[in-house]
Every structure is written in C-alpha cells, then in structure tokens.
Amino acid sequence: MITKSYYMRVEKIFQSGMQRALSSVRFSRDMTRPPCVLIRAAVLFAVGVLLALLLQAFWPPSVLGLHTTGPPRAGPNTWWLFPVCGVAAAVIGLLCPCIDSRIGGPSLARQEWTMVLRCLAVFVGIIHAGAKIEFGSEERLALTLALLSLGLWWAYDGSWGGLGVGLGNAGSAVLVAHLLLYNSTMTSPSDLLFARSWLPSTFFAGGVTVGNIGRQLALYDWQGAPVKMHTS
Amino acid sequence: MPFVAMLKDKISRAFYSHGLMCASYPVPIISFTTLCVLVCCYPLLKLPLPGTGPLEFVSSEKANSALLDGIELADYTQIPSWYVGSPVAYVQQVIVKAMVSPWEQSLIPADAFRAPLSKVFEVIDEIRNHQQRTSERSVNIEDFCLKVSSLLPGLRKLQNFLPEHSCLIVSPANFWQNDLSRFRSDPDIVHTMNQHQTRPFQFSTSLKDLLFGVPPKYGGVSQYYVRERKRVLVFAITIILQAHDSQFVQSLRKKLQMLYPGSSVSRGEASVVHVHFQEEVGIAELVPLVTTYVILFAYIYFSTRKIDMVKSKWGLALAAVATVVSSLLISVGLCTLFGLTPTLNGGEIFPYLVLVIGLENILVLTKSVVSTPVDLDVKIRIAQGLSNESWSIVKTMASELVIVLIGYFTMVPAIQEFCLFAVVGIVSDFFLQMFFFTTVLAVDIRRMELSDLARRPLRETSENLYGLRTRTRSKSVWNRDGFMTFPCNIPLASSSLRTLRLPRRLRVVYFLARTRLAQRIIMIGTVIWIGLLVYTDPTGLRAYIAERVSQRGHIEDGDFSNMALAGFYAEQTDVADVVETRDRWEGFGRDAAGSSRPDSPYMRGPDRRAEITAASGAKRSRGSLKVHAERDLPKEILWDKNDDAIWRRLSFRHWPTLFSYYNVSLASKYISILPSIPLLVTLSADFARSLQHPNEVEQHKMSILHEQSNITEAEPACGKTQHPPTHGHYRAAGLGFILGAVLVGLTCALYKLLCPKDYGQAGHLHRFRPELPCDDYGFAPAISETLPIVLMSGHPLDIECVAANGSMLVTCCLSGSVMLWDALTGELLSVFPRQTCRAGESTWLSESDTTERGQRESVESESVQEFCHGETEILTDFDFAESPLNVDSPHVSPHLPFNFTFSVGTTVGDLRHQNFASAAANNLSDASFSSQRTSLTHRRRCRSPSGDSLNFLGTRAVPGSPSPSGTEAFEAGVAWCLAMKENIIALGCGNGQLEVWDAAVDGLHCKHQESSAGIIHLVCHQKSIVAARIDGMVDFFLLENSNLQNQTWRGDMGSVRPSTDISLRLMHSVCPAHRKPITALRVAAGRVVTASEDHTLKIFKLEDSCCLFTLRGHQAGVTTAYMDQSMTLASGGRDGIIFLWDALTGSKVNHMRGHHSSILSITCTPNYVVSAGTDYKTCIWDRQTALLLYSIPQEPGCSPSFGVVSDSLLVTCGLGCLNLWEMSYGRLVQTVYLSRAEEYELVHQILVVGNSTIACHMGKNINLVCLPSVLDKID
Questions:
Q1: Hey, are the CB atoms on B1112 and A229 less than 8 Å from each other?
Q2: What is this model's ipTM?
Q3: What's the burial of A230, exposed, middle or buried (CB within 10 Å: 0-12/13-18/19+)?
C-alpha cells in the first residue's frame, strides 16, 4: 500500500512537472530569455547539421577517406560528425552576439537577412568551388580557398569578433582532424592533404556564416539585445 | 579629402540629372534598354541548349579508320568538340533476324521463338571461335573485346545473366548462361526472358532489353506471344570492343555472312556513329544546385519584402529580378561575343552570380526615392533619391569590382571565368539599374500618386456624404444571430494570424476550411490518377481509339469489359501498341501467377490467356490461333533499310546502363557504334519441332481444348451475353463502385464535419461564429440597450476640450465656459463662472483674443508646414471639419473659410487642433455675422449659470459672484487644453495662463501666468501639473497646500470655500525642451514624455524634471505618444511608423509599419497596441510580437479618434454612430447610433470615462454612452 501511494505521489509530481514543462513550452512566446535562447540554439543546431550534410554532399567520398565502392554515403563511423557540427554551430551562433556586445560587432547595416543569405550563398559557393574546380596543386587550392574565405569575412562580417570566432573554429576543426588522423580513424594519403588544405578555410567561412546567422537570430530576441539609441 | 568631397558632389550631380532624364522620358528609355538587352543577348542563340540527351556524330568507316591511322582529316568543321581521344568502347552488334518458315499447322506458338533463339548459341560460338590470321599471328575476339571485371555489388541478382571477368558480349543466350542444354530443358523460355521485366517506364532499360540489344517492340518477343502476329524474331548479339580493328571486324562479318547465306544484303555506305553522353545529373549534383537555388529564392524573398510604399510591390520586385537576370544574360552574351566560350555549367553558377551582384542597390534606390518628400514632383523625387544614394552606390560597385578582380588573380581558370562573368554582370547591372529600374520606379511612383488622387476624392459634398450615410444605414442588417453585417468589415491582416488565439482544434479545422486543403488534395490526386491512367493505359483506351479510327469496329456494345478487350484485339492489329499492351497484360499475368503458382506455374498462365482469348467474342476467336498466324505471316525475311539504325531506337539510357553495371561511366565521354552485322536466318518447321519442349506441347493442347469447349458453350448463347471470364472485370468494377461509394460517403462526412452547416450563406461573420464565447449564451445585443444620453449642454459654441476623471466630466467650449458633468448620469453639476461679464463690454470676444488666436495659428502653421508635405492628407482632413461647418453656418463669408482651410491644413497632425480650428472658424463666423445674437446669448448664459448650479447643489454659495478671485477683473484667455485629476481641474489658456479649479467647490484655486506662450498640452499627475507650451517649453508645476483640513471633497457636502492655500508653484521649466512644436505630452509612472515635430521624444523625470532620454528613431515628426504604467512607450510618427520604447531604459523595443500616413492617436493595452492614422484605418497590433492583427477601415469623413474600454473593447467612430469592436477577435460587436437618422453629427472625439462609459463630443453636444451590457458579455 505504501509503495502504491508513493508511486501515485511520484506520478502526480511527475505529471504536474510535465504539465508545467508543457505549459512553459506552450507559452514560450510570452516568456523571457531562456526559451528564446533554447530556440535559437535549436535553430543553430539544425543549421549546423544541414551545413555538415551539405559538406558531405559536396565532397566526393574519396576525399573523406571513404573508399568503399558502395553507394557514396557516410561510412558507418562518421555519423557523429553531424551532431558535433550542430553543437559547434549552436555554440558559435550563441557566442557571436555575446562577443559583439563586448567588443563591438559588425555595423547594423550588415545585420539583415539578405546579407546573411548572401553570406551563406558565398559559403556554399566556396565549398562548391573547392569540391568541383580542378586546382593545379593542393597549395593553390588552399591559398585560393583561404583568400575566398577572408573575402567572405571582409564583405559580410568585418568584425574582429567574427574573425576570432572563425579562426577558432578553423583551428579546432584542424585539431580534431589531426587527432583523428593520428588515431587512424581516417587513414588515407589524401586525408592529410585534405585536412591541411580544405578544412581550415572551409571551417573559417563556416564559422563566420554561422556567426552571422546567430547574430541575426539574436535580433529577434528583442528582450535580450535591444538596440540602444539614447543620449541625454 | 576635398578631392573626395568634390567627387561626391560631381557624382551626386550626375545622378541628379540622370534621374531627371529617366523620369522625364520613361518610354524611350525603357525601350532603349530593352533593345540593348536583346542585342547583347543575341550571341546567346549560338550556345547549345543545355540538356542531357546524347549527341551523335557520324563519320564514315573509312574516315574513322583513317583518323585512327593517324592521317589528319582536312575537314574539321563538322567535328564536334567532344570528339577527342578514343572512345570508351566500340559497340559491334550482330543483329539476327530469324523465323520459322514455312509455318505449319502442327507447330505450337512457342516454336516461333524457341527455334530462332536456339540459333543464338551457334552464332556466339562462331564469334568466340573466330580466328583471324594475320601475317604475324592469329587473333581472336579475346584480343579486342572489352574485358570487364565484376558487377557492382548491388547487382547480385543479375550475376547469372551478365558476363563477369570476361569479354563483354551480351546476347539473349545470357538468359541461359550461354548453355544450349539449359535452353533446351527450359520449359517456358518466355517466362525466363521476362522474369526481370520489372521496370514500368519505357525510358529505363530492363535486363531483357540489354540482352536483346534491340528495342523491345522490334524483338518480337512479348510475354503474351500467343496472339502475336509477328513471328520474326529479332535479337542482337552485342560485342563491346576495346580496340577497333577494321580488318578483324570485316573478317568476322564475312565469316558470319558466309555461314548464313541469306544475309548478304546490299547495304549503303557503312558509317561509324559516335555517341557522346553528357554529364548526368545525379542526386549528388542536385544537392548543391537545390541548396543554392533555395538560398537564392530566400534572398529574393527577403529582399523584395523590403520594398515598400510603392504602387505595385510585385511589379517592382519583378523589375528588380528582371534587372539582375538580364544583366547576367548580357554578361554571358557579351562574353560569348568576344570569344569566350562559357565552360561552366550555367545553371550552377547562376545563383552565385545573382547573389554576388545582389539586389541591394535596387532596394536602396527604392527606399531613397520613396523617402523623398511626397509633395515634390515625381521627376524631382527620382532625381533627389538617386543623388542621395549616388555615393554609396558607386562605392559599393567599386568595392565589388575590386573583390571580383582580386578573385581574377587567383589564376584558377574556373574562378577567372566566374569573375569575368561577374565583372561584366556587375557593370551591366549598374547600367540596367540606372536606366531600366529607375525608369520603372518613376513610372510606379507616378502611378501611385495618380491612384492616391483617385482614391481620395478631394471634395466630397455634404450631400454625397449624407447619401452615403443613409445607404449605409439601410444596408446594415441584423441577421438572425443578432450580429450586424456592417459594410465596414475588417480585412484581416493575415489569415494565419487571425486564428492565433483559437483552440488548436479549431485552428486546424479553419486551416483546412480556409485553404480548401481537402478539396485541393482530392483534385490533385484525381489529376495524377487520370494522368497515370492515360499513361499506363490499363483499359487499352488508346488502342481502342486507334482501332476505332482504323474503322474496324468489332465492338458490339460500348461495355467497359469489351473496351478492355478491345485493346486485346488491337494488340494484334497495331504493332505499335505491343509495349503498352504487354505492360497491361503483365499485371494480369502476375495476378494469375500469384494465385496459381503452387499447382502448376506454367500451366495456368497460358490457360488463362487462352480463356481470355476465347472470351473475346465467340465468332472472332474461332480458330484464330492458327488462322491469324498464317494470314499475316511474311513469306521471307527482308533486311530493311531502317534496321541498320535499329540501335537508335533503343532507350538513350541503354548504353550507360550497360556500362554502369560494371562501374564504367559514360558521362562526358563517347562510344563508337560500328555498323551492325545483319544475319537473316530461316528455319524449317522440322527444326523447330525438334526443339519442342514436352510441357509446351501439352499446354498448347489443353488451351486448344479449352478454347473449343468455350466456343461450344458460348455459341448457343447470344454474343452479347455475359462471358464467364468477364466476371473478373465485373468484380473489379463492383469493387470500384463500392470503393467509390465509400469514398463519397467519407468525403461527405468530412465535409459535414469540416464545414459549417450554413456554408455559403452571405456574410463573413459566419466564419467567426463558432469561436465566439457569447454565442453559446445566445447573445444578441439590442440596439435599444445602449441609448446614448445626450447632454444638451449649455455651451454656446463648439466644445473645445473635454477631460474626465472616474466620475466627472469637464467640458470647455470656445467661449471659455467650463461645465462639470456627472459622467454616469449626465447631470450638469456646475458651471464654472470663468467668464465674468463686465458691464460695458458688448461682446466677450475681445480683439485681443482674436489676435491671440491668429498668432497661435500662424505659429503653428509655420512650424508644422515644414514637416507636413502631404497635401492630400491635408485636404482630406479638411473634409472632416468642413461638413459640420457647412451644416452649421452655411452663410460664411468667402474670406473666412479660406483662412480656416489654411489653419486646418497646417495643424493636421493633431486632432485637437483641428477641432479647435473648426470651432474657431465657427466662432469667427458667428462673431462677424451674428455677433449681436451671440453676445446676447452670452450675456444670458453668463448670468444664469450661477443660479442653476446653486439650485442643483443645494449649497449656499454666494449668488451672482463666483469667487473672490473671479470677481477681480481677471482676463480669461481662450482655453486651449484641459486636464483633470481627482478634483483638480487644470485649464491651459492661449495667453499662457494656467488656471487651477476645484471641482468640489466650483472655485478657482489659483492661476499662474508667467509666460505668454500658449499652453497646448496639459497633464495632471498627483500633485504635479505639467504643461507644454507652444514655444517648445515644458513647465513643471507643483500644487502645494499648506492646510490639510481644507482639503474637503464634494462627498463631504462641505460648503468650504476653495482654499486659497492651494497654490501653484513653478518647479522647473525646461526651455526649450524641443526645437519644434510639442505634439504630445504624457505622464505615467513618474515619467513625463513629450513628443515633438523634431523627430524625437524626450523622457523627463517628474520629480526633478530632469531629462533622462532623448529617443531618436523616427524619420519624421512624432505626432502622438502613449505611455502606460509599465513604462512602455508607444509613439507614432508622421511617416506612419509606430515605435515601442522602454521608457525605463530608453531603448527601442519594436517598431511597426502598417500605416501609410500620419498616426493621430495611439493607445496600449496589456496585449495590444491600437493606432489610428489619417489613412482612414485603425490598426490593432500584438504588443509582444508587433504583428498587425487587424486593421479596421474607417468610413471616410469620420474622426480617427478611438477609445479602449476595459482593455478589450475598441470604440471607433462611424457616421453618426459608434462601433464597438472586440479586440481579441477583431469582430464588430455592436453599433450604437448616437442620434436619429435625419440629424447626423460627426463625432469629433471619443473619451472613455471610467470603465464603461464613453463620452463623445460632437459639436456643441456631448453624448454619453454606457455600455454595461456588452461589457458583461465580454468579461
């Protein structure tokens, strides 16, 4: 009997908790910051996963070290790349507005969806170019892509925060790739070249792009980051 | 720096003159640019159209061998660019045509295939064993053929049929693994051949097609061969060669033709055909394409969304996109013209080019042009807009060019090409923007101005207005639910927003109903179904039609089953339909096989077929098996001219499919198809008989027996009776009918569920019906329930200002008399003796007053005119005020109305001013034309009130003498504004005087006059009074009372004299708070907000009058502001934009766009923001999301004033009535008529008193409307 009543109580508590959670979800529009941040994070996560999928679609499987003759899909042990990319995107996207508030972000004129979309398109173009265009050598490829990514940053971001975030992203991506290489998760002669030529600039551009998206989303969160315009 | 400034100046000048030119000659310029685009695009015609079909190039065999031998050909012109290098493979086909001839009665149908097919083994053996002896050595086919490795891992089931690790030679023999004994022991060869026939569409290649190497309809083998007329079997042995040695091929040809002597046909010049396959579009290639296009469309969407304030948004968006696209076309065209052949895939780089070029410039241009002053000429506006943005446009273009040029120096050919396109594209885009888009914009702006003029008729005569009114009245009908179908309906902001607050279930249902989703899905489904029907042709409709056309009417009646069978006949007559009919019967065959597989798989199939055959009409089917076969049998096999190119009719995917099985891609490569080797084989009947399989013979006998028995059964009966086999059809038809009925029933049920019962009846209110809470209670507001109380006030002139606290209402008219009313009952409580009528003054209206008023007007006109450019607005606003004037005083002298219109026009921003102006004009006219009467009236009025009020109050006040201070000859200024808080009434005068009265004792507390600038806004807050003066000064006063005992209120019935202890102290004076006139003044939560024409708002602290924030953000003068206790500040500007601010932090929270012209009043409730503008609409916004929920159009001629009752009910003015709207649903709840139909008066202003009473002042009268009934229901 005791156990039963205990269970019932627990159940009741659980239910009420669920209801509270549900109601909080339902009225998240009226709530203040935390749900907004969560929603932003979710959106950014989705963006990151999509971008990772896009990368995979662009890069031929031979580059990714998947030398199976089967259908050109992800190998069995690369699925974790997507959530990792998603989490990275969420972190970057949430970080960027915070950094901006500290050290000053790009000018407000750049914070429009059209600019963000242009940035995204240029990013896709960079991936596209890297995947499709025949470059003479790996050095040239790396140089061109780096140039293009820097151009992207200059044209669509232009803030030191964005540069830092992009560089950090690229650096961590290269680090992870090298770790993977040394742990022989991906072993092929082309992998090292790939890690040194494509990864940095691609992830730099990706960081800048996701940062831009994050900033744009943060504008919607009007309670969090209002545009201050007052003098006295 | 001076150089830059000079450059800027020059550029803006150039743009200015260019804008003038564009706006002046729109048509020539547009046609000129169109011509330019067309000319530049002309070279594009030479480019090949993109497509994935294979390309062919024919070279004679000799030329080909010559080329291979290294001899250069002189004629290069015809050689396509892809014809470089060696082909992937050479295809040599040996096409065998074989038949059994002469056909004998004793042969069974299967013999027609079995014997010819057996020849394939022979031929293959010959080919494999062929040795060619050259001088050095002997070579055989193994030396030339293409050796293939294993099949792709996904194709395990084809492993037995396609060669692996050997020469790629495919033939029908592969079905039996090239083993003759296997073939002989196969009881049903047709089944074996068709077992992999699974793909339903013709353009895909099945295994059978691959092995036969000829188009299916030439092969002569269909799954249902019994009735097949064509007994010539055609198949090909396809040899894929890696190297081409013409000698070897020739020797093979000779040898084969020697073996089969009938095949030596005279042939034309043999030619090698090279087939080039283009890059295929796979999913992997589609992903980037789709992504980029999605981004492109999102970009275009977000860009064009920002185009605003133009006549045709879509037109401009289209023009913008057209500009970008045609600039790209120009770029490609020019590049082609100058010799650059595009090598990049156009579809792939197109989105990138668009995004690089961008639509920003266009948007910037549009915005800049739109934000120029409206009252200017279109040409000037365009020119100004262009020159304003000239520098930024040039700068952007230059930086883009620099970026692209940097890209050019990457020295990667593809990127260089892209950059070249981009550079030319950017330049041509600039050209098009300047010429094409600017001109289109000019045309659009001109159209907008024209339409604005047309939409708002300038002078609507009062008769028209009245006619409209009566019409409106007659049209407003009460339907049975008691809702008014008022013509003033709400066009809802967005359908998705409207249902924001509904239960989810209703939302889903409404969504379904609104979008007609179910109907559309059904419609689309039907269309797809019909399309599939036509495509797959299951009833043989096509064949039926073909047969009817060929005048062979076998059909006795138009029965469905017969129709189905007609196709079967047609199969015999129309060879072209073999494929479709085969597909058709396949289904039946599969059914039959599925049902009868356990007992005897190859017995049942033919049996059933024979049944069907027999059923197809008794007369026709008699003996058809043999007769048919003999009748159409060709006597001899001939090699047709068309047969040479038989491979051309293969599916274009044929060769890629074959090669892809071995992971060889033909994309952007080519293969060479060598002239085929024809072999014609005639077989004797004996040979055929020797190959017969015992099972087949048995089957045949059984089927013949069955057929005969069927005929004997069928003959006694009439030909039209039901045939047993058609039962299947009827069963199917019956099932179909039942299914259809069920579907119809389901749809009906769904319809009943989803749609309201009286769907289709007039009135949009039906849709709202279920969501109303009141509906459940049978809510029917009666018109008589809320009759307004008319306070036939004693005001001699129009009421100038009204103020209220919870229970009392103060009015003040132009004559200066102030009256106090009970807001609930409408009783006149007292009249303040503000005007002391001094003897010897014939008229109260002194000269000084007139001049003072004139001065005020001139000040306002000067200040406001700078900002108010909208002439149309002014004139339409003039409409409101003109009509009552015409009614009231038709005999106004010509010079007075002129003055009047001027003053109204210039004070358009503020409703109160306008009222004042109308009243003032009224006053003036009265003064000048009937001054005698007026003065008399006034004198009387001035005398009587004291007595009246005393009578009413029952208190013993001093008769005839208002107050001690009043008796002093104090100069009463014209009241400009009024404020009331508890018992304190503050009155601001035109001469800068501030009077404080006590409502309790009808006495003047004190007055204050330091400045001569008139007070235009006044608010009371607790002990403070804030006054805004016309010169932009804000004064903060404090009410001080030293003696608290004297603070007795009306409820105490004390007859205390107004305590002179209450004094007014000027605490602080902010001078000047604003450079331009102050348009609004609000106090809440210890903050004072002033809005001004100088585009800013200021927030002051009430205690120490310190300016906390200056809010900047409005692009035009701020016309109104509202602040509530939560420190949320809403402000509306002359440009129609509403801003929400946080008064605590001074930060902008949100902004809302929706009004097209000045906003006149604004109010916030906890959930909504309500605004009304001069564009005749009242908008309800969501306060949190700043989304427009509803916009309620106003009837023209009504005041845009509104009130909000108990946070949920919106009161707007109608023609002689008040409309009550429920804010949460945007629904018209009730209409209250203020007076009889004959005597309309326009409502000037609405004031909400307390929680349920609305005071609306109209001319000289005040109407009180109590709304308890509605509020009960709403709450």
A1: yes
A2: 0.72
A3: middle
